[in-house]
Amino acid sequence: MKLTFLGTGTSTGVPVLACRCPVCTSADAHDRRTRPSVLIEDDGHAVVIDTTPDFRFQALREGLQRLDAVVFTHPHADHILGLDDVRVFYFRQQQPIPIYANTHCMENLKRTFQYIFDGNYPYGGLARLDPHVIEGPFRAGNLDFVPVPVFHGKLPILGFRVRDVAYLTDVSAIPEASFPMLENLEVLVLDALRHKPHPTHMSVEQALGTVERVKPRRAYFTHIAHELAHEATNAALPPHVRLAYDGLKLEM
After folding, report:
1. Going by fewer Cβ within 10 Å, which terminus of the chain is more open, N or C?
2. CA 67: distance to chain centroid?
């Protein structure tokens, strides 16, 4: 199994528009971050978690040739607005693309992309999607997903465990009932926005505390804001904890 970080930035991306801070003007390619998403590939199957506004660019950069499913964490704009670009994979594969989301997220997807779902769009060129509401563990592509309930501020959203990897983006708190789902991990991918506390995201310090409790072999931080320079932040982290970066590939 291979996990590729399609994007590792916060909702604005990095560089931030009109910002001239040291990270936004950095020459280090690791400091250029598109919106957060991952691609998981195994045995010829490809599943994306979240379709960001940068999905087309991310898929081109990685040479993505097929797409077997899309799994959604929650319905905020930086995680869903690339869904229209999934249609190209439907045209190529000539099979509806399965999408998976909880009830709240699926309702929002159907509102935001009404022209895809209502069946009355007269102009053609639409993706055909096969929607599935997440109510427990499910199979997407050839991979088994375990939904991990977490909180994004006051909003209940989903992280996911796939084999020995857990992906928890946009998380500010993990309920006690979810910690047993995070035992014996090879890799934990976790939200770590910045050093300063934020109401809907973990800070670096909070994320490090979570890593200490969960004890994965390796941890990678994502959904990173422009307050964190890649090289300087990594230098201050424990050896088994790193900032992720766009295009990083992990082989399991």
Report:
1. C
2. 15
Collapse the DSSP code of 162 into the 3-class scheme (helix H, G, I; strand E, B; otherwise coil) and give the result.
strand
How far apart, in whole angstroms, are the C-alpha atoms of residue 212 and residue 152?
Answer: 20
Out of 3.40.50.2300, 3.90.226.10, 3.30.200.20, 3.60.15.10, select the CATH number for domain 2-251.
3.60.15.10
Tally Cβ neighbours within 10 Å of residue 64: 19
Q: Are 244 and 189 in contact (CB under 8 A)?
A: yes
- List pLDDT tens digits, range 85-109: 999 999 999 999 999 999 999 999 9
Buried b (16+ CB within 10 A) or exposed e, 151-176: bbeeeebbbbbbbebbbbbbbbebee
Q: What does the block give as tokens for 64? A: 């993505």
Q: How far is Cα 173 from Cα 153, in angstroms, rounded to an integer?
A: 8
DSSP classification of residue 125: -
Structure tokens at 87: 């249609």
Calpha distance 213→176 (Å, rounded): 12
Q: DSSP 3-state assignment of 218? A: strand
Using an 8 Å Cβ cutoff, are 211 and 185 in contact?
no
DSSP 101-112: E-HHHHHHHHHH
pTM above 0.90, yes or no: yes
For position 125, what pLDDT does the model report? 87
